[in-house]
Amino acid sequence: MKIKENQIIEFKQNWRDEYLQYVSGFANAQGGTIFIGVDDNGIVTGINNARKLLEDIPNKVRDTMGLLVNVNLMSENGLEYLRIEIPTCSMPVTYRGKYYFRSGSTLQELGGVALNDFLLQKMNLSWDSTPVPTATLDDLDRSAIDYFLRCATDSRRLNIDALHDSTEQVIKNLGLVNDQGRLTMAAMLLFGKDILRWCISAQFRIGRFGTDVSDLITQDNIACPLVFMPDRIIEVLRSKYLITPIHYEGLLRKEPLELPEDGLREILCNAIVHRNYMGVDTQMKVFNDHITLWNDGSLPSNFTIETLMEAHESHPRNRLIAKVFYLAGFIETWGRGYEKIVNSFTKENLQVPVFSEARGGISATILRERFMEQEFRNNSTKKLVGENVIENQDTTQKTSQKTSQKTSQKTSQKTSQKIVELIQNNNEISTQEMANIIGIDRRNIARQIKNLQAKGIIRRVGPDKGGHWEMIDNGEK
What does the pLDDT read at residue 347? Predict the structure, then answer.
């Protein structure tokens, strides 16, 4: 025979009833063909009981799995062998209470998360569509819904009339309730007041490490409605984990992240959409010279890392979450995520992140080239200056006192600047939304807003609900 074993072809020299597992595996995957009387090299060795098996095998497949398969008697050089053709099945096929799946050239018994994903896929469902019987509309955060609606209308993927829809209307229009009117897991993660109540692993973990993972310096666990999460992660990275090299464009001072924000945001949004929420939380580890992000969840069936780097169809693990992220303008639906990441990094002359499969999930490694450049410059400066940097102990103490006095002022100034930026981007934003995005409590936001109003930088027009913000002299008073 001129064919070789592959994902849809299996060779067996003799028949054993245990090979019914292979029938189940092929039926649950793409379908396939089993040749009986052929060795691993594709050489026909023949079988003596071919005509008896021609009758027995179809009956055994029917009786154990309820499947109909074609079994054909073949002959080559006077040797008889069988060809069993197994069609793919739209429903899950079990053999003796177990589920098997053909992946590549191997047969796998499914269990745990893999089995759950498989069963949902066969029923044309995704995990995020499962109902949450005890959840009610009162468990949803209206500020998260309003933020989504503004993003979706700004991106022109929803009509502006949607801004006035009730919570119930929005959830129904997005398909986030099932036929029995129960809220889905997607609704609770996207807009829930307490997402960890419904999914303990829905948080995003960030850790700052020294030379290795045993040297943890600081960490943050981010748990908020998923529509807020990309902004919240970026804000935490900006304030605690990444540097913002200063440069000037003309007279304008710029403080961008050390990594291209568009590319970083694309990586984060894809992690949120594609992750396995029944596994462990997403983990970002920040080291001096690189960052690793690990997301639980394997690639779609028949996908490889190389597939992601080519033009491909989008196969989101969580289809409802992906739909909402698309409508909000956070992602596209054309499988262009990797292309966007590549373009954003190459545009800034940075090395493209490296993706790989690791520990049942996907890992991204991002080099911190700008941080290392700055560290090199700082170290060089220290060597040149030496001990003359500090003239005496009194100067050190005075500097320390001044620094501690100014720290709270700088933190307050950063918060005020962020509030101004948020208002410039969306003049209808609420104080609660600002608090969610910046990551501080609402009272602190209200205090900062009061200061900005007192300084004549912003003003409120209209009531709390239905009003909007206005900038005075673009915040430069």
Answer: 94
